[in-house]
Predict the structure of histidine kinase.
Amino acid sequence: MAAVLVAGGVIVLVAALAYGRQAAREAYDRLLVGAASDIAESITVRDGEALVDMPISAFELLALAPDDRISYRVVGPDGQTLTGYDDAPLPTEKGDVVFYDGVFGAEPARYVGVVRRFAERNFSGTVEIIVGQTLRARRELARDIAQNALIALGAAGAIMALFAWLVMRSALIPLPRIGSALRQRDPTDLTPIDLSAPSEVAALVQSLNGFMARLDRQMTSNRNLIGDAAHQLRTPVAAIRAQAQLAAEEPDGEQRAQMVARIHDRAVSLSHLLDQMLNHAMIIHRADTAPRDLVDLRDIAVEAFEAFEESAQGRSNEVALDIPDGPVMVRGDIMSLTEAAKNLLGNALHHGQPPVRIGVRNGARAILWVHDEGAGPPSEIMADPGARFAGDRSKGSGGLGLAIAHAVAASHAGWMSFSATADGFEAALDLPRDG
C-alpha cells in the first residue's frame, strides 16, 4: 500500500509541476499578446511612413510581472527596425501570432510575434511587432500553482491513506484470529471454522472449510476401512483357519471334501466382502479427486449388464437390458457410476426375485434403475441406504452394495430412490442431467 501511495504521489507531483508550468505559460502568453496587440493598434501611417506611438497600456500589462525585463521591436515591411531593440530575435515561423523562446541578454525569455497588415495608397505591407519577457514571474507562478495543488492533493492523499489503512486493518484482523484458531485445534478436529470475517477474507475461510471437509471425508473413509477390516474380516478369517485345520486332521475323505467345499465358499464370500470394502473406500476417495466427464448412462447400464449376464444366466436368473434410443448424458466419474450400477444389479440378483431388469430413463433427470419381482429390502434399509453391513448377508452379500450406490449418488449431486411397482420393486440412481 505504501508503494502504491508513493508511486501515486510521484505521478501527482509530476502532473502538478507540468500543470503549473502550462498554466503560467498560458497566463503570461496572454499578457504578451495583449501588449503586442496594443502596440500594433498604435501604429499609424503618415506621409507614406509607419509611425509607432508606444501606448502606455502595453507597458501596464507587462508591468504585471514587475521583476521581469521586457524587450520589444517593431519591424517595417523592408525589415528595418522602426522602434525598439535591434537584437530582439525574430520568429522563425510565419503566422499572424507566433510564440517562441529566445534569450534576453543572458536570461531565457519568451517572445510573441504579431503581424499587422497595411494596404493604403502610399503604404502597403506588413509590420511585425515583437514583444518579449524574461521568465521570472512565470516560474514563480508555476511554483505557486504546483505548491497549492500539492498541498490540496497531499491532504487528500493523507486522508485516503488513513482510510485505506483503517479498511485494510479491519479486513485483515480476522487473519490472525483464524491462524490462532487453527493452531489451537486438535490435529483430528476438522470441523468448519466459525469466525465472522469481511467478504474479502470470508472466501478464504470458505476455501479452508471446503478443504477440511474433503480431508475429513478421506480420513473418515480410511478410519472406516481400518475399523471394518478389523471387525468384519477377523471372524471369517478365523473360521477359514479353523476349518482348514480340521480338514487337515480329518481322515475321512468324504468329510474332508465337504470341509474343503465350505472353506471355498467362505473364501469366496470373504473375497467378495473385501472387494466391496475396497470399492467403498475407493468411491469415497474418488468423490473428491476423480475428474468429471460427460457420461452416457446407457453405457454404464450396458457394462453392468455384461458383467453379470453370464453368471446370472448360469444361475437360471434372467437379466434383461432396457435402454432408450437417445443418449442420457450426465457429468460424472465413469468408474464410480459403473460400480454403483453393478452393486444395484448384484443386490437384485442376490436378494430379489427373477426376472431382473436394468435400464435407463430420460426425463427431467437421468435415472439408472434396477427392477426385480421381489418385495424389496426391509424398511430400515430403505430409510438409511448408506448404512454399511446392513441386511441379510447369508447369501454371500457383503452388506455394502447399497452403501456404495448411495455414496456414488451423493457424490454426483443425486440420490437413491426406492419404489414398489405392480410387479415388483425398483431401486434407482437419480442424477441431474447434463445436456
